[in-house]
Amino acid sequence: RKVVFSGIQPTGVPHLGNYLGALRQWVRLQEEAAPDTTLLFSIVDLHAITIKQHPADLQQWRREMLASLLAVGLDPARCVVFAQSSVRQHAELMWILSCGASMGYLGRMTQWKSKLQLPDSALPLASSKDQLKLGLFSYPVLQAADILLYNTTHVPVGEDQAQHLEFTRELATGFNHLYGPLLTVPETQLSAAKRVMSLAEPTKKMSKSDPKPKSRILITDSRETIHSKLRSALTDSIEGVSYDREARPGVSNLVDLIHHFDQAGAASPEELAQDLKGLSMRALKEKAADSVDKSIKPIRERYEELMSGDQKKLISHAESGARKAEAMAESTMQRIRNAMGIGW
Ligand code: TYM
User: Fold this and answer.
1) Pocket lining for ligand 1, CB < 6 angstroms
2) 157 partner at 20 to 30 Å CA-CA among 23, 86, 189, 280?
3) ipTM score of complex
């Protein structure tokens, strides 16, 4: 039986990287799911607090994320949408897994290493490196717990999560070796748009934490904002359009965006670039903006409706999701506790 699990941090409205790399794929999996497939999508608020958050912001962002997940098309009747912190078993399994997690392996994680390479002044906690927190280091163990609690078979994510999933498999295999084959070893499922690049610095991925808001387009951005952000996207001074992610990262990122949003269009980004080769940079940007706007307009409209509608009803979707998730998680935990000799 197929079980799909994925998560997203409530650190602001999702951007096109989140949407193309993950959320759109989640909706597709939901549409294609066989009746006996279980789909779980979690707002991972416990991950968000590895970086200091203002309580009021976190609460607001959780709600915005819930509205975003429903706005992109996740249907609470068909999948389990819930907040990670509502299901206590995530934290419990994390502790258990952390007893088998290697510090060496965690220390080699790219996301952790990138934090170590930042100058002290740029660190999220406004503190120096030796004050980096344990939660940030053990973050991937909590992610593994999220996945392993539900006997997940498939995890649809963007490429930046691939290393964490490799680590998850390692933890599951190690656990099974000690206590018997209890945990399902999950597969990574990358979408076609596995790495959407920043508009301002197209050699870096589009990211929520980039200080420049123009580097990313949010799924709730207005038509004007989308056009203005794309107009100022960094390209190059080579004439015409061609596709080469190494030599022309900015132009290629725009071609990719059009390609990913233009479902009926060209078969590959190379072919699309060939069709567009006569366009000026300005015209390419306009075209990209039109195609982004056309695709995300319905999402923006549903989002606004959800955020201005009955908030109790909105939240009730996550509450009933949490009850379903908890029942599944508790059944896994009972087997784990028994196998480990925890309890009478
Ligand atoms: P997060 O919240 O940073 O991102 C959510 C999803 O968006 C994808 N993504 C991208 N894909 C393509 N191009 C980009 N520029 C881009 N930026 C982000 C991410 O790969 C991700 O799929 N650690 C996770 C959350 C998490 C999780 C989990 C995921 C916690 N537990 C269990 C899967 C399973 C994270 O921080 O994602």
Assistant:
1) 5-9, 17-18, 21-22, 44, 47, 143, 146-147, 155, 157-158, 160-161, 193-196, 205-206
2) 86
3) 0.99
